Amino acid sequence: MESQLNRIQSLLEHPDTKPNEALMLLTPLTGEDHTPWPVLFYIGIAYIHKRAFKTALRWLQKALCESSDKARIYHAISICHYNLRSFEEAETYSRRALENEDLYKAWVHLGSVYRAQAKLREALTCYQEAVNIEPNNVELAHKIAEIYRDQGQLDKALELFQYSIEQHPDNHISRAAIAQLLIEKKRFGEAEEHLELIIAEKPESIPAQSTFADLYRQKGDYPKALKLCRDLLEEHPGNANVRQNYALCLQEVGQLDEAERHYLQALQDEPDQYQCLSSYLMCIHYNPERSRKEIFNAHKLWDQHFAPENQPKRPIPQNIDPDKKIRIGLISGGLKMHPVGWMITPGLENLPADQFEIYCYTTNNKFDWITQRLHRRADKWQSVIGYNDEIIAGMIRDDEIDILVELSGHAADNRLRTIAMEPAPVIVKWVGGLFNTTGLQAVDYLITDQYESPAGEEAFYTEKLVRMPDDYICYLPPDYVPKIEPLPALENDFITFGCFNNPSKVNPDILGRWASIMKSVPRSRLLLKSKQYETKTLRERIIKPLESAGIAADRVTFRGESNHKDHLSHYNQVDIALDPWPYSGGLTTCEALYMGVPVVTKPGPTFAGRHSATHLTNAGFADWVTDSWDEYVETAVNLAKDQKHLTRLRQSMREQVENAPLCNGRRFGAHLSIALREMWRQWVDGYENNIENWQAHIDVETLSEQEINEYAALTKVEEATNKTEHKESDKSVEADVVKQQQITTDHETKAWNSNMNSISTDQGIKNSITPNKEDNDDRPEVFKIETKDGVTVCTPPDLELLTPYVLLEQEQWFEPELDFIRDYLQPGMRVVDAGAGFGAYALPMAKIAGDTGAVYAFEPASETASYLEKSKLVNNFDQLEVNRRGLGAETGPAMLHHAHTPELNAIDEEGDEGVSLTTLDAWWTFAGQPAVDLVKLDINGMETEALQGGQQLLEADRPLLLLSLGQGAESLRDLHQSIHSLNYELFEYIPGLSLLADHEAGEKVDPYLMNLVAVPLEKRQQLEQEGWIYKKDTPGEEAVETSWKELLGAFPWTTGLLDHWEQQLAPNQQGEYAHALNLLSTAEQIEIDSETRPTAASQKGSLMLAAARKLVKLYNEGNTTPAVALTLARVMAQLGKRNQAVEIMDDLMERMDTEDSTLLDVHLPFFLPLPDQDQAEIETTFSQWLTVRIAEAWVLLREPTGYLGGKQTLQMLEALEDNPETLTITRATIRLRKNNLNDPALDTDHNRWFWDPLKEKTADSATANSDYRVPSEIINVKVNFNNGGDTASVTIRIPEKEVFRLKNIFEDDEYALPEGLSIKDNGVIIDIGANVGAFAIYASQWNKNAVIHCFEPNPQVTPLLELNTQDLHNVTRNYIALGDSDGTIALSQHPINTGQSSTSHPIKGGSKVDVSVRHSGAAVLEKGVTHIDVLKIDTEGAEVAILRGLKDLLAATKVVMLEYHSEDERREIDRLLSGFQLYAADVQKLWGIGTVKYVNKKLLTS
């Protein structure tokens, strides 16, 4: 029997299977009592090959009872169930097979089972398991490629299809798939090459030749496309695909009658080709010869051909409450930048989230910013590409959709057969291939309006009509829409008419009308724009009728395809748009109106002909909708005659369109809510009352503005609710609120690596003030941060994470090696980014690599990877592949430890999240061994392991490596050993030179060095010649004498100093320093680009090194003047010796604190430490400007980012906060550290959504802002403080930029009393410079019965003072200034901070207001004051004058607290308060400002 079974097995496993012959051999082996299980098994297999699956199942079940080898039988049973479409059983038996044996075929089959159920992720997992068994299986690569294609990951799909043909060049199925994808990506030349190879080997391949014809059509080469189709039809007249392609070409060149005939012939040849009928139905709408009745009857053909024989039974939802939350399903290929996307998005975004769920089923794999917006609103997003209609209908039923909305109609990517299966209780047609009735009895409603479907048209629809009160769509203008230019006729001296519609809509009839218009408008021109006009054949079709009507060809201009923004900008060349007929413009009309171009239309006989009529009417331009051809011509001519009117229209139309119902998403969303609710209620009523024809026409009534606002308010519920219940796993949960906690660290060291180890998330200071932004915070759920690289990075909205903090602070990632990547990487290169995080490297690299390159990003943390995928979507980067795995030395599972910021996540056995690891080699092999140019590894200590797992890739491609430095010497030593064993050598990147320099293994590593670059030994010479590696023997150019003067003279802060410096820089006195300056200046003026790099880069390096040697020598010899120190710090930082630069700045800062003010009298020329400071203008005095520059450089050099700043850094930032000399980047750091996010003085280039968030104002703050014009927005801040032993809270209204003062007062106890002193019930507190009343509130906690006299002259804040102190007892408010005399004085109001307004000196950029001033002593005595417990003075320079006026009361004063602004003031205060003892001081020596507190010496004895 064994030999017989072997023979049978060969018959069944041979490529040309012979099941009948096998059955003849098997039948004699069966017995009445017992049949061996292999016989039963092979009988089942034979019937599988005969596709008799039910019979096969019976034999296989018998075999299962007899056999001990279960795996193969389970697998075969699963195949039977799969083909019988019993997918649950198929999955069950496939799983059982795998439980018994790890079969390659079983994994592949289970993947197919999942794929058939639209479970793409599960299918992909199964295929990946199969890869582990047979890594090089070509068939498997093809299957995985198909999944990637269906998911829209076209680049991944291309790579795997490419791998298939590399292994088997004759694999024409994969090659044809590549050609199709390349056509889709408009890479026509490459697609042609693949098709030619197929045809060369298989000249009879009709699919390949038909694809070639479609390629020609999409290129616009209609003569070739038409000829190829005709040739194919001569040989294969019954091929419907070829004939349909031929009909489409005919349609697009205007041969409509011929196109219609061939569409119908294709349908007759292959009656199952429903797309032929859909194309025919669209085509007849272009034909002016077709009547409304003909068109309506044609639509009935669809049900006649394709409706199911038995009407399907619709699902009945469990919940049929008429007022329940309705689940809406949308199925379309237009959920993107497409007429559907532009016209449905505002309405869907404005559907109340508590009333409607939205499930999207997309039949197209394109992703763009419209897709993103719809994706954000959707509760579920599901691709249904590649699945048959039964599966999709099952998915919709399983999702329990209540109302299914069809959005493709008879256009491409439609799923009308799914609709015909009636998978939802209610089915609706809206936008998308909507040119008439669908003709499907399965569709209950069609959303329209009174202009698209006027009264009396109901008989020409198979659906019930839902008439919206305005337009049936709501137009969303793109955010990149160009500005409107002046009327072109003003410059041209002639009128330009235009039409940007599909040329299929342009026929001889309408061309005749346009000719009449042009003849009535002398010298006028016609501009036609569409992709098809790039074809001579089509242009001739337009020119001939016009010439016959008397319009010369030179009066007609054609424009071809362009990107959408450029397409819109072409409207700036058009004065008046002419609508086609009988099929009018839809989206083109909306776009023309939005670009300020009038559109003249005559409605056609069907829905398709009335688009423009409704859009014009609902934009407020009904006068341009005409009733006859005479009126059509007359309207266009009259518009052309009045250029002044056209000019006014052009200036005002966009605003009118934006404010009209056409673009009012709130209004449309409210009306759509009513329409959907009424549809649902009609179904519920029909179901409950057993009404067969339950549908009725619906006329939605116009809502009032108040009713619209109520609906609009409901849409905001979505912003506050967590929408995770029905989210797909690829649509990660986005955070709902932005954390406001301040980031503090214990950082006290200079080293970057130790910084990263020592970050603490515990707050060092417990906040007692909480900005009250719950009611007005409009922060997004995800930060979308624009960077200087021109990419958008999506991150969680959390400033306690490193990436969002850094990108908002610096608008780029802070590692200097990113500059190397920007320079080195070229379009078309391929990069691996391991440890991609949120994409700080991956996204800029993807932009540079472009469509022809690729970035393979590995990020194992699921949430982090989900944000990177969002960024991929936002940036439309098909070239970016996100792999949710880590890299290591081996493949397998691992645990990932979640650090407080994801950039520090690390593989750890005690981790928080289970992740998968792969190796570079395993991925590379599976991906088809793509050529890799660069590998970046930043995986927190796993770099060496990743290198071990990538030796095949590294040996084959020899890419450059960018390697993150691990923690500690051992990690670096391991890295050195790994690199050496791979025949690579290590380099450091020198930021100031854009060069790589040798990394010396034995030398001490600069603690700020974050990455090393590894270069293959054999590539060193090439990279040196190209100027990427510093050549030590390069002779530097001679330094240009006085080049320092030329370069420094370009900086605004050197005005008036150069001549003085030149005199001081006498060669006999400062020759070495002058030479160093000239070397540095000559180096900095060398520009490095792709052409100059080979010689210029190393020359620049030699000059700068020579300058460094001279400066170091001077510094070490004791010349540590600020000029030498600052210049040396700059050179060290530029040469990558940042730690040395920091040490120099540390020394300079220390000397500033201990030496006298003459230290900053700089008599020699110098460079600032940071190039970013070069253009900083002097706002105050040179001394203060230089002080700020030094402090700023100390902070920015010391900390690569403010995120890492410790206590000293934070104190310095606080000192710099209000100084007018502070740079933008420092202001950004300050604001991020303090969460003070609304500083109007900050002018960042990007991310205005973050830096200037729009907030709803409270009634009080709105009044205060409008009436008193405070510099920043007024917010409510809740303050906690001690009130008689109890914790009390009060809300203080304060300008948002000045919240820091509340921290000083309430957290830092800036005005604390001396220990042991208490205020009695008869206590008196004088608050001079009361501002908004914060000190008065703070002082009230000492004794609520004490009297507080507040003095404040600034009318900007006096209303806030009154408002904030209104609940305090025993407070007087006096709106006057105090001094040493009476009268009027000018108050200079600070442009940023009201607390810095002053009567003592003018303020740059401030406004002046006259206020009353009183002698301080007299004003206080008038209050009946005989003693003072606490005297607080904060008047920005008037303190001494006020003290003098109060000298008679000082003896009866216990405590004095005041600010001083110079050392002279401090000495005068000490003199006036000679009877007092200083008990506390907060001295800021940087620019001579401090707060001092004194206690009366008489109290010291008591």
UniProtKB/TrEMBL annotation:
Residues 754-779 are annotated as: Disordered. Residues 754-771 have a biased composition (Polar residues). Keywords: Glycosyltransferase, Methyltransferase, Repeat, TPR repeat, Transferase. The lineage of its organism: Bacteria, Pseudomonadati, Balneolota, Balneolia, Balneolales. Pfam families: Glyco_transf_41, Methyltransf_21, TPR_19, TPR_2. One of its GO terms (biological process) is methylation. It comes from the Bacteria. GO terms for molecular function: methyltransferase activity; protein O-acetylglucosaminyltransferase activity. Signal peptide: none annotated. TPR repeats lie at residues 104-137, 138-171, 240-273. Its EC number is 2.4.1.255. It comes from Fodinibius sediminis. Residues 320-472, 490-670 form the O-GlcNAc transferase C-terminal domain. PANTHER family: PROTEIN O-GLCNAC TRANSFERASE, UDP-N-ACETYLGLUCOSAMINE--PEPTIDE N-ACETYLGLUCOSAMINYLTRANSFERASE SPINDLY-RELATED. This is protein O-GlcNAc transferase. Belongs to the glycosyltransferase 41 family. O-GlcNAc transferase subfamily.
